[in-house]
Amino acid sequence: MSLRLLLPDTGVTALLTSWPDEPRVYEREAGELDRVVNAESIDHYLDTGCVPADEIAVVSDGAALHPDRHRTAGRTDPAKLRSLYEDGHTIRLGNLQRVVPFLADVSRGIQRETGYSNYLHAFVTPPGRQGLLHHWDQQMAVIVQIAGSKRWRLWRPVFPSPMREYQESFRVWDPGFIPRWEAMGPDLEVDLRPGQSLLLPRGWVHHPHALDSEVRSIHLTFAIRERTPVWVAEKLIGCVIEKEAFRSVILPGDIGGHRLSQHVREVRQALVEHLAGLDVDDFARSLHRAAVSEREYTT
């Protein structure tokens, strides 16, 4: 199982059976993942420029540089990347499941095991520096420390179960968040080291850094997109396109007029009738096929 490359058996069981809502640190045994993704291979990607420029971000103290700072003629420039790293910037190599065949297999394996699509980024942070500041993510993350150490200061979610664009950090940000968090101190603090993985549920505020380290930090973030009732609802509604009535034109004059309310009533009634006649078991089978196979290409 691909998940067992990231977590011990206890962690895999917890993930598959309870989907924890509290952070957990696990000890993991080195294996095939560590033979393929390690400090040397990450350096190789940095020094060859094989990761597409659009998948790279360069960050320091929460500020991201313009993409042209690490590009030449629109392509990844290894010399520029190395210089920026030496200047103290964190380098994020994004979506490595699209670049490394082994990691593509791991990603697909995780999807087969969970029914959840996923992606992974690598973060390389110079010693004594920090890339991202306080924020939270929209999906469960498994953080695998590859080299060095990184301190993770964690606070409980401000908003329950954020997902996609809904309640993203930057969309609902309040300037008072950071002073309030810092005044009360973190709910949990973890120094993550090689051989350890951190299970980080969505919504948990995190403030990771290598400020107290004398060696660089390299970690992988496996982001696992939870399936939710919203996903089921979207699939239920999506299949109505097969019925001609749902493809008929609503006239431009009706969009801005009093007729729009009537269209809403008619569509709502048609949708109710459509759902009432649905073969639930057959739909569930098609839903499962989609869950384990459909690739999502947004981060």
List strands and helices in order, with pairings.
Layout: H1 9-17, E1 24-27, H2 32-36, H3 39-48, E2 56-60, E3 63-64, E4 71-72, E5 75-76, H4 78-86, E6 90-93, H5 101-114, E7 118-125, E8 140-147, E9 150-155, H6 177-184, E10 188-192, E11 196-200, E12 205-209, E13 217-224, H7 229-238, H8 252-255, H9 259-276, H10 280-293
Antiparallel strand pairs: 1-11, 2-3, 2-6, 4-5, 6-7, 7-13, 8-11, 8-13, 9-10, 9-12
Question: What report would you give on this structure?
Answer:
The chain is globular, with a radius of gyration of 22 Å. The protein is 34% helix and 21% strand. The protein has 10 helices and 13 strands. Strand 4 (71-72) and strand 5 form a beta hairpin. The protein has 299 residues and is α+β, with helices and mostly antiparallel strands. Strands 1-11-8-13-7-6-2-3 form an 8-stranded antiparallel sheet. Strands 10-9-12 form a 3-stranded antiparallel sheet, with no helix packed on it. It has a two-stranded antiparallel sheet with strand order 4-5. 30% of the residues are buried.
Query: What structural category characterises the helix and strand content?
Result: alpha+beta
Strand order of the largest sheet: 1-11-8-13-7-6-2-3
| Strand elements, count | 13
Radius of gyration of CA atoms, rounded to a whole number: 22 Å
Query: Average pLDDT, to the nearest integer?
Result: 96
How many individual helices?
10
State which percent range the strand residues make up. 15-25%
Distance from N terminus to C terminus (CA atoms, Å) equals 24 Å
For the biggest sheet, the summary is: 8 strands, antiparallel
> What series of H and E elements makes up the topology?
HEHHEEEEHEHEEEHEEEEHHHH
Low-confidence stretches: none
Shape: globular
Helix content: 25-40%
